[in-house]
Design goal:
The structure holds 2 protein chains of 2 kinds. Chain A is globular, with a radius of gyration of 14 Å. Chain A is built from no helices and 11 strands. Helices cover 0% and strands 56% of the residues of chain A. By secondary structure, chain B is mainly beta. Chain B has no helices and 12 strands. In chain B, a hairpin with a 4-residue loop joins β8 and β9. The termini of chain B are far apart. Chains A and B meet through β5, β9 and β10 of A and β5, β6 and β11 of B.
Amino acid sequence: SQTIHQWPATLVQPVGSPLSLECTVEGTSNPNLYWYRQAAGRGLQLLFYSVGIGQISSEVPQNLSASRPQDRQFILSSKKLLLSDSGFYLCAWSVGWGNNSPLHFGNGTRLTVT
Amino acid sequence: AQSVTQLDSQVPVFEEAPVELRCNYSSSVSVYLFWYVQYPNQGLQLLLKYLSGSTLVKGINGFEAEFNKSQTSFHLRKPSVHISDTAEYFCAVRGSNYKLTFGKGTLLTVNP
């Protein structure tokens, strides 16, 4: 069966420090991968999605970037964190080219920028 | 582009009472609809999905939802809730691309 791993679970970082959040998927090949951010009272905002190695689509201009160095690995990064980057970050995957495939989420990373 | 509106940000109910969480969507193309549940400090778990066929969809934990194309709605229902159903519920829509658009969520609180 497929599983998705996200780490770390929680992270406290000072403003201006770098960030690297990692997400890996097991048990499937060539998944579509996603990074979402969840802020209190604002639902989920899609940040990036990827349909293949090295293919990244950005949804919103921001202080973050994403990379997909391997088929089942998706990394969210920042060179210098801002206070506004605080939030709950969720990685997700789906399979297939059809739009009817649901997303499956990891357990998230709670990021607090101080 | 598609959008999702969850009409209630919070819904308090008593245990064993029925509940309906409302969701309306807008899209210029055919859509696929989903409900997810999120327990505190966890990721989202798929409750149910509407892809095609019967408009009444049954999911896990006794939840069901009905797709109404004319009213562009996909309301979530449960006839009798438990304390353990306390969580945040998200409606989501997917149109002609890879993106899943979420509503802002409804916090369901089940009181004893």
